[in-house]
Amino acid sequence: MQGSGYLLSARIVLTARHLLSDDMATTVVVPDGRGRISCRTLWAGDTDEGDAALLLADEDLVTPETVRAFQPNRFGRVAGIAPLLDCYSLGYPQVRRYNGRKLDIEQFQGTIKPASGIVRGGFVLEGAGTPPAARDDGQSPWAGMSGAPVFSGRHLIGVVTSDGAGWQHSRLAAVSLHSLAGVPRVARLFEIHFGEYLHCTLLHRTPDISAEFESRYCAYVAETFGELSIFGLDLSRSEHAQWPLDSAYLSLELVRGRGDDDAPTVQERGRVETALRNRWRVLLRGGAGSGKTTLVQWLATNAARDTFPDQLAHFSGRVPVVLPLRTLVRGAVLPAPADFLSAGGHPLSPPRGWMDAVLTEGRGLLLLDGVDEMPEADRARTKEWLLKLLTAYPRTAVVVTTRPTAVDDGWLSRRDFAEFQLLPMNGRDVTSFVQRWHTAARSIAQRGLERAELHTYEGQLLSILPRKQDLARLATNPLMCAMICALHRDRRGFLPDSRMNLYGAALTMLLVRRDGERAVGAPEGLMLSEDAQQKILQEIAYWMIRNEIAEAGQHDVVARIARLLPAMPHVAPPEDAPQVFRFLLHRSGLLRAPTAMTVDFIHRTFLDYLGARAAIDAQDINLVAARAHEPQWEDIVRMAVGHARDGERAALLTQLVARGDAIPDSSDGTRMRIHLLAAASLEHATSLDPQVRREVERRANALVPPKNVDEAVLLADAGPLVLDLLPGPEGLSDEEATAVVTTARRIRGDHALQVLLEYAEHPARDVRAELVSAWGAFDATAFAELVLARVVTDDLTIAVHSAEQLAALPLVGAVPDVTFHGDLSPAGIAGAVRAVRAERVTVFDNSRLKNLQHFAGQATSLTHLRLVSCAEVDDYSGVAELGLEKLSLFGVRVSQDLFGLDAAADLPALTLGVFSGSGEPETLTLSTRWPALPSITRLHLVLRIDEDTGSGRLREFFPHLRRLLLRLESDEPVTVDLSALTWVPEVEVTITRGPVLLEGADPFVVHRLSRPTEDPS
After folding, report:
1. CA dihedral 800, 760, 728, 265 (to 10 degrees)
2. What percent of the chain has pLDDT over 90?
3. What secondary structure letter does DSSP report for 510?
4. What angle do CA 995, 998, 1000 make, to 5 degrees?
5. pLDDT per position as a tens digit, 945-974
6. Strand, coil or helix: what is 578?
7. Is the dihedral of CA 150, 151, 152, 157 positive or negative?
C-alpha cells in the first residue's frame, strides 16, 4: 500500500497507521534522497490513540546537505472551533500519478474545520477548489494521500487519515498533532529523539501571521546588526562609519573561565566558533573594547540569516533577541517576553503571543549585552529575572556579556552557564585587523591618490607594530587597533606613544577633524570649539558615572546641559540647550541615540576618559580614591591619574596606597587590587613625586611573586613596570613559578620574553604547560626557537593555531603530542608531524582535510590520530599505511559510511563520537553503512542513548572486540539493557549526563559522572 508521510528528521517519519503491515517491513523513499530504505516502527496508534505512526529508518533518508538545510519543527493546534483559513496538505495521491504509475506531489488547499471529527481527536480539511472526479474502480482519487502532513503557515497541525465518505472527495479527514501529543508513548519518543516536548502553539482563526512577522523581524535584525561601526572610517562621510559585518568581523580567541563547576582543569581555548561549540548558555567576559558587543552582533546576524558555521549548528533555526542591559534596567520592572522587542529599542510590534511561542518552542537566542553597564544595585535583580525566565523557558539559549570584574566567578553557573574570557588579540589578529581596516577604508576612498596612500599607511603600520613594543602593547583589542589605524592615517604616519595620548588624539580627531574633513558648516545653527565640546561632554560623562548609568534619557541630558550653559555664555544661552544637545549628538562623533528617547557614548572607554577628566577638574580626588575598590571605577582611576596635575596625581596615589594599607590582609583581595591599581596607574603618570612613586612600587613589590593565577592576572594589569620586579625561578614554589609565567605572558613584549626564557627549563609540569600556552602571545618563530625548544614537552600537548606556528613547529624539536586547529594546510600538517616525530596528533575543525593520504608514508612515528569535526573527510583508506595503534573520530555523522576504514586491517583500537546534524550526540543506533572491522579489539563509543541501544549489533561490526568503553548520556530518565554485551570480555560504562538506569550491567564496571538535573536555585 502506498501512502505519504512527513520527515521530522533525517530518519524519523510521521505517517498514517493503516499504511503499515504487521508482517512486512515498511520502505520509505524521499525524492532526491538516498533511495529505498527500510524502516522499523517506533510507535503505531491504536483505535483510541489515532490513525498515526512514527517510523525510524535504518539510516538517513536524505543527503547530509539536505539534513543541514532542515528547519526546526513547528507544531500547532487550532484555538477553539472557528474555521482556520489558508491551510494545506502535501502528499502523493492517485489523482496525481502520470505515465501510468509515476508519483507527483499535490498541494491540497483549504480550510480546517476543527469541530468536524473532534470526538475522535481529528478534524477536517475542506478543499477550496473543485474536487477530483471519482475513479472508475470505485477507489478514492485521494488514495495515497494518507499520512500526508497538514499545515497552517509553517506549523504542522495534523496527519491525513482518509477521504471522508459522503463529501464527493471535497474534504480530507486528519488526526491532530495536539491529540497525539497527549499519547504518553509519542511524547516520550519526542523527548528521546528530539530532546524536547511535542509542544503545539495555539493558532487562531485569523491567518497565522507569526511566520510572516518572523521573516520581517529576522530581516530587520540582519540589516540592523549586519553592519559594524568601525572607528575612524567616517571622517569624510558619516555613512562610511558602517561596514558589512561579514567583511569586518574578526573571530577572536576565548579561554574557558574558572567560574563554572564543570570547568576543565586544563583551560580550554579556541576561536569563538570552536569554543562555543554545543554551548547553549554562555557568560562572556571581556575588557573595554575587546569585542563583546561585536560578537553579540555577529551571533544575532547569523541567527537571523541562519548562516552559522557547522561548529555552531546548535544555534541554527533560533530567533535572536538583542537586549542591551543598560536599556532594560531603566524601567522599574524588567520586561516580560511580550515586551522584549520594545524594551530593547526594536521598532517592530510582534503578533500577540509570538515571543512566548518562540521561547516555549526552544527557538529563542537571548543576547544580553553589558552586565557591567548597569548599576551594581541592579545586577542582583537582573540575575533573578534571568533565572526565573530560564525556569519558565528552559530551552532558551543565552549569551551574556560583561567586563571581567563586574560579577563574581560562577555568577550564573547554577544554570549551566559556561564562562569564557575574550583573550587579547595576538600578532596574527592584529595583522588581520589592520589589513581589514585599510581594506574597508580603501573601498570608500573617493580618489585614487587616497587609495594609494592607504596602501602605504597599511604597509608602514604593519612594519611599525612589531618593532614598537609600547605601541604593540596597546594594540591588543579591536577598539585600540581601530584607533591606531585611524590616527596613523589622520596624522600621516605619526602615532601617540601612550594610551592616554592615544585617547586624547582620538577625541580631537572626532571633535575637530571630523567635521573639518567633511566640510560641514553649521547645520544646527551654532559651532562649538573643541574645548567647549569636551567641557560639556565631560560633565555629562561624570554625571552618568556618578549615577551608575551607561545610557541616559535625552531630556535628562538636555537639562544637564542647560545647567552648564550659564557658565559658558560664549557657547549658547540656557534655552538653547536642546540645540547644543543636537549638535553634540550629530556632530561630536562621541554620542549616539540607541532609541528616540535615550543617549549614550559610542564606547564606554570614552565615557570613562571624559568622566575622569571631569573628576580631576572638579578636584574630586577623595571621591575617586573612595570608589577605587569598585570594578567599574578601575579604568576611571587610572585615567584620573593620567589627567591629574603633579600635585593632584601625588595626592590621589597617596590616598590609594593608604586605603589599601587600611584594609586587612584577610579581606577578599581588595587590598591587593587597590595596591595593584595604584601600580598600574603609574603607566599614566608622566611626572610624579619620587617618594610617592617609591611607596607605590614598594606595595607592588610586596605582591611579587604572585601566589596564584588570580594574583598574576591582577599583577599583569599593572603593565611592564612589573616585569622588572618578577624574580627568577630559584626559590619559588611551583604555583608561584606558574603565576610568574602567567604574568609575563599577559604583559607580552620583548622584556616579557626575556622573563620567560629564565623559566624555559623549569621541571614542573604546570610551569611548562603555561609556557606552551604562551606561544600565541609572541612572535611564533622567536618563541619556538628561544623558549619552546628548551621546554621538556614529553608530557605536554603543543597547540598549533596558525600558519606561522605551523612553519615554526620544527624549531621546537621532538614533540610527542600536537594539536592542529582550523583550516591549516593538510600537507603542512603532515610535514610538521614528521619533522617533530609526533606520536599523538589531533586535528580540529579542518575543512581542507579530505582524506589521510598526506599522512601516509610520512608520519612514521604516529601511533594515535584524532580527527575532531573534520566534516569533509570522506576517505579513510590512508589509515592502512599509518600503522596506528589507535584512531579516534569525533563528530562523525550517523549518515557517514566511514569509507575506506576497512582497509585498516591491523588497527587494534577505535574511538567513535557519533553526532547528528543538530550538533547533539546521536542515539546509539549504528549505521548499516559502516564497514566490519575485525581487527578492532578495543572500542570506545561516545553516544547519546534511548531505550533501544542497538548494542546487540556491535558484534556485526567488531566481531573480535575484547574491551568496550561506553560513554552514555540522556536528557530524560531512561533504562538501558546491556545484557546483549556479555560476549565482550571487558566492558566499562561511564554515564556522563542524565538519569540513566542500567539493566544487565552486573558483570560490567560502571561509573556515574552525571549531576542531578534539578537546579538547586
Report:
1. 50
2. 35
3. I
4. 175
5. 544 445 566 788 888 989 988 887 765 667
6. helix
7. positive
